[in-house]
Design brief:
This protein has 348 residues and is an alpha/beta fold. The protein folds into two domains: 243 residues, QueA-like; 80 residues, Beta Barrel (Thrombin, subunit H), CATH 2.40.10.240. The protein is built from nine helices and 17 strands. A hairpin with a 5-residue loop joins strand 9 and strand 10. It is globular. The model has no long low-confidence stretch (mean pLDDT 95).
Length: 348
């Protein structure tokens, strides 16, 4: 299967630039996994599609201000870092812009010198490994000096970007560590959560910290050659037991987002039994493409994703490529809003 099999035409004006004021007013395209039939709905109606005893699994990761803008110490030239992952204390892998001029040994300062980064290595794929020097608490400095790492298709000026600091977080965001939001969680409100509880639908939290692997461009033609970069995830003993109890009772597991689905599948054995990440955090480089047999998730809530993306591959693996692309064509015709701040799809 080739990457061109996952193309679709999307008018630019359907790329959502802002989240809705009322999160749960997002539209929701409900797709029958078996038949491919669809129905136009709204996210606020999600509880109507679930039954007592079902379990909804959400990702409780929190986005941190991973975008830093500073100046080269030597020349004063502007530099922007997108922090990707911490490899050891105060040492991070980062994307740099402009990157080609930033060499090993170069230094960048932020916040008038309160934070200083030295490039200690230029990696083969163009990323930089940088060592930060600071006197104050590093996370506090990031919170003050950093910016929300919005995707490049969302356009912002500095005056309006501050609104994204909380809008680009989900209702469940607690565990700091992501550089992008698990966007299927952006529609949730206390009202929908309360309705699920009233219907005796269990809500289970797990954590997968969204990293560069989730949105890294696919650079191969043959899907078999693509690998999603490893991301960290954690499933508590309580969460694993609750998921397994639900399955044992013959009820459904609804994965909220591709990141949740990926974490669940990474922790499951061949029978679909989910194991806790004993000892804390694990890493997964599981790459899900059509042909993969899901072992845990019975339904998937997900946003509409970019063409040729690993996220679309996963959704197509879950719902079937032809069915999903047909649903996407309908979503375009019906003018659904796409991508991070856009509408959603429930595959059930």
């Amino acid at each position: 299967m080739h990457i061109s099999d996952f193309d679709f035409n999307l008018p630019e004006d359907l790329i959502a630039q802002h989240g809705l004021a009322e999160r749960d007013r997002a539209r929701m395209l409900v797709v029958k996994r078996a038949s491919g039939d669809w129905r136009d709905s709204n996210f606020s109606e999600l509880p109507c599609y679930l039954e007592a005893g079902d379990a909804v699994v959400v990702n409780n990761t929190r986005v941190f201000p991973a975008r830093l803008k500073g100046m080269r110490e030597a020349s004063g030239g502007h530099v922007e870092f997108l922090l990707l992952r911490e490899v050891m204390t105060d040492v991070w892998e980062a994307l740099a812009r402009p990157g080609r001029r930033l060499k090993q040994g170069d230094a960048v300062v932020f916040g008038e010198g309160r934070l200083r980064a030295e490039v200690v290595e230029v990696l083969p794929d163009g990323k930089r490994r940088v060592h930060f020097h600071h006197q104050e608490n590093f996370n506090a400095l990031l919170d003050e000096l950093g910016e929300t790492p919005l995707p490049p298709y969302i356009k912002r000026d500095e005056r309006s970007a501050s609104n994204d600091r909380e809008r680009y977080q989900t209702l469940f965001a607690r565990e700091r560590g992501s550089i992008a939001a698990p966007t299927a969680g952006l529609h949730w409100t206390p009202r929908v959560r309360a309705e699920l509880a009233a219907r005796e639908v269990e809500l289970i939290e797990i954590t997968l910290h969204v990293g560069y692997g989730t949105f890294e461009p696919v650079r191969v033609e043959d899907l078999r050659e693509h690998r999603v970069a490893a991301e960290r995830f954690e499933i508590s003993t309580e969460a694993a037991e609750a998921i397994n109890r639900t399955r044992e009772r013959g009820k459904r597991i609804v994965a909220v987002g591709t990141t949740t689905a990926r974490a669940l599948e990474s922790a499951a054995d061949e029978a679909g039994r989910v194991a806790a990440t004993e000892g804390g955090v694990r890493e997964t480089d599981l790459t899900i493409t059509p042909g993969y047999e899901f072992r845990v998730a019975d339904a998937l809530l997900t946003n509409f994703h970019l063409p040729r993306s690993s996220l679309l591959f996963l959704v197509a693996a879950f719902g079937g490529r032809e069915k999903i692309l047909a649903a996407y064509r309908h979503a375009v015709e019906a003018r659904y809003r796409f991508y991070s701040y856009g509408d959603c799809m429930l595959i059930i």
